[in-house]
Design brief:
3 helices; homodimer
């Protein structure tokens, strides 16, 4: 069965590229550098439903992403979470946090309505993250 | 250097046992079955700072815990998160969620003041989780 991204993720996110296991998306909210990994496997809602090699790949891809974001954005903290109370398809949030951001130290989920990126800002952001990931990871490719 | 648990985790949690990499703690809040894994490595604040074998162990132990909680509590969802905006020592939350719980579908962090377990309730809870993990995982032991 062909992989189908959940319609809510399709609506909220911009597709950036993919790793071996996961699609990389970015939430279209200019208030936070906020990225989402979605393993390309239908019908999965929990990490423990992945088999062991998939779990290892997931944490490897998550760590490549988090490490890259940490450097690229000079983050104070990376918040990583698999929540999925509203969107059941397994997706793992990676959010760059600063002590000076709008909701620090609270987690960001459900706090502020999204503010979409402006066109130039979006293209700069996608360009820099794509470039940084391609330098960092052999397995990352743009979609 | 001997491993030291962050004082805030010491204060909020009850030590349950350990896996090969992580200590397992439970947050003393009877409103949510809420468990925390802490890798026994000093000075780590992000998952990507662990080496690859440690990352694989972490996701394996996390999945054993989440799978066990899912069955034991008949959960609607397991929420897993590494946030650490307030407590820098790397710790990964595992929270059993129900569609009927007090803050569903919002994430629980920062939502409600904790209500400590009553003595009998605490001993029953610790007994059942310890038993379930020992059945599930060769590497789990009580502290």
């Amino acid at each position: 069965m062909k992989f189908k991204l959940h319609p809510q993720l399709k609506q909220d996110c911009i597709a950036i590229g993919r790793f071996e296991l996961c699609h990389l998306l970015m939430i279209n909210d200019s208030q936070f550098p906020w990225f989402v990994l979605v393993p390309e496997i239908n019908g999965i809602t929990e990490i423990f439903q992945l088999n062991k090699p998939q779990q290892s790949l997931l944490i490897e891809e998550s760590s490549t992403l988090a490490d890259t974001l940490n450097t690229l954005y000079n983050a104070d903290k990376i918040n990583i979470a698999a929540i999925g109370n509203l969107v059941p398809q397994l997706h793992i949030h990676h959010v760059v946090r600063y002590r000076t951001d709008k909701v620090w130290p609270a987690p960001i989920w459900g706090k502020l309505p999204a503010i979409a990126y402006l066109e130039q800002e979006l293209s700069d952001t996608l360009g820099s993250i794509t470039h940084a990931l391609q330098l960092k990871s052999m397995s990352f490719s743009t979609s």
